[in-house]
Amino acid sequence: MGRWRSVLALLLLAAATAACAVPGTGRPPADAATLAVFDVGQALAVGLVTPDGHALLYDAGNSREDAEAVILPFFRAHGIARLDYLVLSHPDQDHVGGMPAILEAIDVGTFVDPVLPSTNRAYLETLRLVRARRIAAVRAERGRTLALGAAVRATVLWPERPFLTEPDGTISDNDNSVVLRIEHGAVRILVPGDLEARGEVALVAREDGALRAAILVVGHHGSRTSSSEAFLEAVRPAVAIVSAGRNNPYGHPHPETLQRFRTFGAQVYRTDVDGTILVRSDGTSWVLVTGQGRS
Ligand SMILES: [Zn+2]
Questions:
Q1: In this predicted structure, what is the pLDDT of residue 207?
Q2: In the chain, N or C terminus with fewer CB closer than 10 Å?
């Protein structure tokens, strides 16, 4: 397993699991589920491969290059020829930009989408390809579960209808992002797209305890307007993984947000610093691997 170059941490769910922890050798556990938070710059793409060979991609980065140079090689390396699900959090360029290239390159079982109004060209091309390839398309809405084999369960926690609106009445893209909860045994991962504080508060009011997750793929690239105290109180992550571009013009992740993670005791990893970040779970504990660069 020489490709696992730099194991930074072996993290345990709780002290109670310490006795059966995977030894900290850097060797990923056999029969693991793998989560990848890809280094796609100022954008988001999250991959998942289950122990029994099911696969999901949540968002696809900003561009064709993100899909071809970063995302697809990961699935190929894991022997994945078909994605069970392609999930779009919301139709902004930094999430949908690479999707047409994904659809052209790999079979997809089901496309999952909140169906937000958008004129983004990559989104319209994505919809065209989904139709042309007769891919099943389902609406992402709270309560929908995504079947991913025997070991892993994914549940859509957000959005719900009616969509949240801005003060001027327009539908908010970010606050209606798909929030996905992934469960592998006792290991929980929460992926909230670009959800911001208003969406977080609405979600916490409905789900509360169901949001608890050891691993949080941080909302909206670590912006100041996401990862509110109320949300972090509900999630209580041990690890917070930020997808942001090197020297991005938005200042993501924001120092105040990083401080909030420190306050809640979450260890922060960032794609702009750590490259593609992998989490390998055996259903009880997990290993986090950084430094997976572009191939
Ligand atoms: Zn974004």
A1: 85
A2: N
Identify the pLDDT of residue 292.
Answer: 72
Residues near ion ligand 1 (CB < 5 Å) are: 94, 194
Give the distance (Å) from ligand 1 centre to CA of residue 22.
Answer: 34
Write the pLDDT tens digit of every residue in 38-78: 999 999 999 999 999 999 999 999 999 999 999 999 999 99
Global confidence as pTM: 0.90
Alpha carbon distance 82, 106 (integer Å)? 6
Query: In angstroms, what is the span from residue 276 Cα to ligand 1's centroid?
Result: 17
Summarised one tens digit per residue, pLDDT across range 187-209 is 999 999 999 999 999 999 998 78
**Structural element, H or E, at residue 96:** helix 93-96
Between the CA of 42 and the centroid of ligand 1 the distance, in Å, is 7
**CA 77 to ligand 1 centroid distance, Å:** 26
Are 206 and 231 within 8 A, CB to CB?
no
Residue spans of the domains in the chain: they are: 32-276
**Paired tokens of 151:** 């070991």
Measured in angstroms, how far is the CA atom of residue 97 from the centroid of ligand 1? 11
Q: Which helix (H) or strand (E) holds 66?
A: none
For domain 32-276, give its CATH number from 1.10.340.30, 3.40.50.150, 3.30.930.10, 3.60.15.10: 3.60.15.10
